[in-house]
Amino acid sequence: MRIRYTKEAEESLIEIAEFLYYRWTEKEILDLYAELENVLENVSQNLVVYQKFSENIFQALIGNRNVKFYFSVNEDEIWVLFFLNCRQNPNRLDFLK
After folding, report:
1. CA–CA separation, 39 vs 50, rounded Å?
2. How many folded domains does the chain comprise?
3. CA separation for the pair 86, 42 (Å, rounded)
């Protein structure tokens, strides 16, 4: 499956990475990206079903459960929609509904 990132996903991931750069070790940040890749691989192979956020949007926790990311899946693509630090205001997700 092809993996695509929305502009919002790219911007929110950069924002989180910059924030974590000052609070986490380099290994923890690399682990976050590895977990992201692992979840996307599991989704592409239909190995794991993740919690639904809304009708066609799923969510997964990564980074020692500190970061949620939201994605949708169709026949041949996974769309990564947004990343949210679990300490951020969940109202930032209103555009996904």
Report:
1. 9
2. 1
3. 22
